[in-house]
Predict the 3D structure of the following.
Amino acid sequence: MSAPEPVTPDLRREQGLAVRATIMGAAWDRGSRVSPGLEAFTELGIQNIWCGSWIDPTLELRLKSVTTISALIALRHTGLLGFHVAGALREGLLSAAEIRAIALHLNPYVGYPVARDAMVVIDKEIERHEQGDPAEDGGTGRDQ
């Protein structure tokens, strides 16, 4: 039995960028590179997040999406939450009902105001998705 081929840094980056594009979309990428500081920060994130845990095969993309959406709700990161909800819907990782259920399930753990704020973002993204909003993966109204 032969050992699996090692993943080269270039292949890891390719895989990481592909997952990032799938989840976050092109609008996120454009907004993440608008200044030299954000460009450097974006590269750090690509190396440490997208080329790391997001391409680790231990968890399937659906579970990573549930986990990330849950963490973003708990940490009140509603700007990022919108992008992750949009990506989960666009890629068919989660249904609208499942995403709403995540916020409802977290309510007793994170508190009503936090879960409600998340639900406002979630409902906006679901509405955009259901209307086929051409403002690809988010457009206006989201932090970048």
The domain at 9-138 is CATH 1.20.1290.10 (AhpD-like). The helical segments are 9-31, 36-53, 61-74, 78-90, 96-110, 112-130.
